[in-house]
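testing teh design pipeline on a random one, pls ignore if ur not involved
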């Protein structure tokens, strides 16, 4: 009878830590964007926004379709995605093993953390003049800027997640006679790997936020370079179209990481992510 009463209760919209059904999640996501674009369109039609500085959504959408039909813009997208992937892969190759080592061994944290912590508070764009002097105007400064903007934060995240590995696992392995190397590879790494993927997904989003800054540095290709060219001629619709493309690409990579997380760690529930 108690279960019957609970099942007959109306579903509440605001429940603590309760996830709505997938269909509701999709509908709510569509609703918030529909409201946003409706308000934007209404403001444009009502004359509250300047067509030069803030064109209407349908104008931006038309421009986006035209850009996607051009080969040069597709090459810009390819160049931007390549820069993101190369710089992010380089950051992961350094940050993941170093972060795990710092989280697992106190001596590693004591040695590296003062250096890493200091770099986290330095704004990556401030290094643009130095990077230009070091690497010239080619791909070097762009990749270096994207690398610096991600690697130190990723190290810290991985280190913190490694520290959260339950001590009982390590103590049990030590009791069974496992060596430090065996404990690291058979206990610590498998336990922290799901959270490492989460940290990588979080920092990949940060990498996309640095893309436009990296590509305004003497760049002739890339989405950011296209947006800077559009700024010179006051083509605000092309700038906003570029913003939409960056947002869409970032969302696609985020969804890819979520899918990989579910594929690699099916034993972890959605709530833990």
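output:
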């Amino acid at each position: 009878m108690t279960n019957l009463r609970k099942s007959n209760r109306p579903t509440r919209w605001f429940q603590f830590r309760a996830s709505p059904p997938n269909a509701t999640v999709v509908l709510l996501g569509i609703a918030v964007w529909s409201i946003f674009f409706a308000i934007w369109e209404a403001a444009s039609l009502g004359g509250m926004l300047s067509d030069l500085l803030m064109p209407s959504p349908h104008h931006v959408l038309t421009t986006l379709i035209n850009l996607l039909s051009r080969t040069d813009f597709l090459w810009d997208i390819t160049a931007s995605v390549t820069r993101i992937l190369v710089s992010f892969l380089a950051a992961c190759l350094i940050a993941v093993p170093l972060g795990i080592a710092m989280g697992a061994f106190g001596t590693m944290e004591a040695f590296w953390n003062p250096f890493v912590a200091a770099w986290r508070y330095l704004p990556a764009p401030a290094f643009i003049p130095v990077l230009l002097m070091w690497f010239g105007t080619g791909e070097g400064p762009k990749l270096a800027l994207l690398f610096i903007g991600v690697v130190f934060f990723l190290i810290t995240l991985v280190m913190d997640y490694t520290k959260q590995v339950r001590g009982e696992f390590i103590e049990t392995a030590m009791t069974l006679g496992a060596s430090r190397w065996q404990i690291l590879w058979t206990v610590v790494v498998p336990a922290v790997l799901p959270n490492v993927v989460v940290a990588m997904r979080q920092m990949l989003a940060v990498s996309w936020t640095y893309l436009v800054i990296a590509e305004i540095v003497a760049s002739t290709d890339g989405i950011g370079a296209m947006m800077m060219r559009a700024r010179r001629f006051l083509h605000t619709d092309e700038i906003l179209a570029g913003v939409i493309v960056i947002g869409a690409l970032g969302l696609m990579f985020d969804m890819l990481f979520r899918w990989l997380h579910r594929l690699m760690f099916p034993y972890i529930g959605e709530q833990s992510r």
